[in-house]
Design a protein that fits this description.
Elements lengths: L5 H31 L3 E10 L5 E12 L3 E3 L1 H11 L2 H21 L6 E5 L2 H5 L3 H12 L6 E6 L7 H13 L3 E7 L6 H4 L6 E4 L1 H5 L5 H16 L3 E5 L4 H9 L4 E3 L9 H9 L7
Parallel strand pairs: 2-4, 4-5, 5-6, 6-7, 7-8, 8-9
Antiparallel strand pairs: 1-2, 1-9, 2-3
The protein binds ligand C2E and magnesium ion (MG) (3 copies).
């Protein structure tokens, strides 16, 4: 290895940082344009009743149709939006559009379903969240029982009392609250009884090997049992194969979401699935 002087190292490092900061800034600029130019789309992934194969809900998942780069996944831009503060505007956009769409499906005479919207940490902690939800419900006329927010454990743990107060205020509006990716965060089980939630969503890491790993299967069973004991709805995410579905059905998991039934799809395609009544698997 050639000897590198401290000075050269410094220059290399700062060039790299410059490049990162620049592409980061470009992403932020493109996101701002994306919102203004309607490049975001809400996709919907069905939540299916495991024993009836009927759609009982949907998770709203944002997609970005970037004219230059094609579809960008939320894993790429949501964390940046979260840091730059753009998540509040984007999050409100998703909330509004999901509720408008759900209301439109109801007015078209389809069997009502609950739509779940992801809320990021920054949105959850924002003072504006409650007002935004109130405003969207008013604006769309959606009955609050058809809206659920998905939050994660890690958002709740810094200041549990404040989080509980916020959750209660949201629940008082009549909407549902779900803990997403349950089992991967670091919340203590002792808090679970204090959280005014309606749903637990078992993280897909557990579902992935329920059919092959007896210990994982036991943990999944325990989460299902815990949900039942606490009178919560339980949703399994990431069910991909028949073996996952049969495990979940046999172990009393009400609701299943995953590629087995369908990937997240555009609203029009989702509506077609709703009209079919019974889900075929993908
Ligand atoms: P999440 O809320 O846990 O959403 C579930 C993710 O798992 C989605 O990825 C979905 O497409 C994927 N998934 C569903 N079924 C399966 C399966 O059977 N197998 C596998 N491998 N994956 C499955 P997606 O849409 O890429 O979203 C990733 C994450 O981005 C979400 O995780 C959520 O944290 C975030 N996100 C998506 N949309 C929004 C949004 O509108 N607002 C906020 N704040 N975050 C969002
Ligand atoms: Mg989610
Ligand atoms: Mg999840
Ligand atoms: Mg996740």
């Amino acid at each position: 290895h050639a000897k590198v002087s401290g000075r050269n190292q410094y220059q290399f490092f700062s060039k790299d940082m410059n490049r990162k900061a620049k592409s980061r800034l470009e992403l932020e600029t493109r996101m701002r344009r994306a919102l203004a130019q309607d490049e975001f789309v809400v996709y919907y992934q069905p939540k299916v009743s495991a024993d009836a194969d009927t759609i009982v809900g949907a998770e709203a998942l944002i997609r970005w149709m970037d004219p230059e780069r094609g579809m960008v996944s939320p894993g790429e831009f949501i964390p940046v939006a979260e840091e730059s503060g753009q998540i509040e505007a984007i999050g409100n956009w998703v909330l509004l559009h999901s509720c408008l769409q759900n209301k439109a499906w109801q007015e078209a005479g389809l069997t009502p379903i609950k739509v779940s919207v992801n809320v990021s940490a920054r949105q959850f902690h924002s003072r504006a969240l409650l007002d935004s939800v109130v405003q969207v419900l008013e604006q769309t006329g959606l009955d609050p029982k058809w809206l659920e927010l998905e939050i994660t454990e890690s958002m709740l743990m810094n200041d549990v009392d404040t989080a509980v107060r916020k959750m209660k205020a949201l629940r008082d509006l009549g909407i549902g609250l779900s803990i997403d990716d349950f089992g991967t965060g670091y919340s203590s089980l002792s808090y679970l009884g204090r959280f005014p939630i309606t749903t637990l969503k078992i993280d897909r890491a557990f579902i992935a090997d329920v059919d092959t790993n007896p210990k994982t299967a036991e943990i999944a069973r325990a989460i299902i049992g815990l949900s039942r004991g606490l009178n919560l709805e339980v949703v399994a995410e990431g069910a991909e194969i028949e073996a996952h579905i049969s495990f979940l059905r046999d172990n009393g998991c009400d609701t299943v979401q995953g590629f087995y039934y369908s990937r997240p799809v555009a609203a029009g395609e989702f509506e077609k699935m709703m009209r079919q009544k019974v889900m075929a698997h993908a």
